[in-house]
Design a protein that fits this description.
CATH architecture: Sandwich
Radius of gyration: 18 Å
Largest sheet: 8 strands, antiparallel
Number of domains: 1
CATH class: Mainly Beta
Mean pLDDT: 76
Strand content: 35-45%
Low-confidence stretches: 1-34, 51-58
Number of helices: 2
Shape: globular
Structural class: mainly beta
Helix content: 10-25%
Oligomer: single chain
Number of strands: 18
């Protein structure tokens, strides 16, 4: 009986150790913290959520990652987990898919509903399909290149003419929300960048 309970507790302990939360803390001395969570699926099959964090979630050899940068900084400045920024700061969030499979992954859908505490900055959705990462986990330099080379999408609203858009408080990419289909080729990466201000 004790051995059985020990096994259960060990399993619970490893689940707890594997669970983490991340936040962007704002205000000069505010204890308020807000999570910005992205969800995704591949052809309708849900994958693990990604919070604002440098940890990768993977489905085989494809990962979804999320990070943030100080918007408009003279040099590319990636924010670390639990970064503290003052209210009204503009933050560029970057959600990126890194496909290290030997084949393309088609029909990926990403959704990021902005929580209270952030205000979306209109007409600032960018995507990057031109750059790649050498391995499953992108280096800080590779993340910076993905961010710096992202280009504005033509239609900022959710429309079938662009792969990404914004509607009803959610930034999305892929067919699931009504955008164009998002496919990521073998060894390729896709980055989605959007800007929000800290309330």
């Amino acid at each position: 009986m004790n051995k059985h309970l020990e096994t259960i507790f060990a399993a619970v302990r490893s689940i707890l150790l594997a669970t983490f939360t991340t936040s962007l803390i704002f205000g000069p001395s505010s204890a308020l913290a807000v999570q910005n969570i992205a969800t995704w699926d591949i052809a309708g099959v849900a994958q693990a959520q990604a919070t604002f964090d440098l940890v990768s979630f993977n489905a085989g050899a494809i990962t979804l990652n999320k990070t943030a940068f100080v918007a408009g900084a003279a040099t590319t400045t990636e924010l670390l987990d639990n970064a503290t920024v003052p209210a009204t700061t503009a933050v560029d969030f970057m959600i990126f898919v890194n496909n290290q499979n030997g084949s393309a992954v088609n029909n990926i859908n990403i959704a990021d509903a902005l929580p209270a505490g952030f205000t979306y900055v209109p007409a600032f959705i960018k995507v990057n399909t031109a750059n790649t990462c050498a391995a499953l986990v992108c280096t800080p330099a590779e993340r910076a290149v993905l961010y710096e080379n992202a280009a504005l999408v033509v239609n900022q609203n959710v429309e079938p003419t662009d792969v990404a858009g914004f509607a009803a408080g959610t930034i999305s990419a892929g067919l699931g929300a009504g955008n164009a289909q998002l496919d990521v080729g073998a060894g390729a990466a896709f980055a989605l960048v959007f800007r929000a201000t800290v309330d």
